């Protein structure tokens, strides 16, 4: 597998801890969302570029697998692979790691490039497309992670 790109390195804040004494499920998604924002900046869609191009990225679908608990002040990293992409979509796979390499959660996402002036999907601006291609060259796994493509359901014995 090629190496995932580290997008965020931080610590779990107190307001992300719920009544169970660990990170709330919504805040795992928040960490992944912050990671997608950083990905956007990495491929040339920071705040200035979004305004200039009237272009952004929306999350169309998100599948989270919760693998381990995260606690207050625990150091974490959000890393990302690109599983696939085309002219206006990115099939992304993000991982949240805690201390000592603990793999705490994954998030498989379908991202869509959006022309904000039209309110419709549109191809990535040329410069963004070029940066996305470079990102994918270095951060696409040779095989999909175990959690990718999972379907939710109750398995029943026949």
UniProtKB/TrEMBL annotation:
Give one GO molecular function term.
hydrolase activity
State the UniProt keywords alphabetically: Hydrolase
* Keyword Hydrolase part of the UniProt annotation: yes
Q: What is this protein called?
A: Acyl-CoA thioester hydrolase
Looking up SUPFAM superfamilies in the UniProt record yields:
Thioesterase/thiol ester dehydrase-isomerase
The record ties this protein, via PANTHER family, to: 4-HYDROXYBENZOYL-COA THIOESTERASE FAMILY MEMBER, BLR1345 PROTEIN
């Amino acid at each position: 597998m090629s190496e995932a790109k580290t997008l965020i390195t931080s610590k779990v804040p107190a307001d992300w801890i719920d009544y169970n004494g660990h990170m709330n499920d919504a805040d795992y998604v928040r960490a992944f969302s912050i990671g997608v924002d950083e990905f956007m900046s990495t491929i040339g869609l920071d705040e200035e570029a979004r305004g200039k191009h009237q272009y952004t990225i929306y999350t169309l679908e998100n599948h989270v697998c919760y693998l381990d608990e995260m606690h207050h002040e625990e150091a974490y990293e959000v890393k990302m692979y690109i599983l696939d992409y085309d002219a206006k979509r990115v099939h992304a796979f993000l991982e949240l790691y805690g201390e000592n390499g603990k793999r705490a959660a994954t998030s498989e996402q379908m991202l869509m490039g959006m022309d904000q002036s039209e309110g419709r999907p549109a191809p990535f601006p040329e410069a963004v497309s070029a940066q996305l291609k470079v990102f994918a060259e270095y951060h696409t796994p040779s095989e999909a992670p175990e959690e990718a493509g999972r379907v939710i359901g109750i398995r029943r014995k026949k």
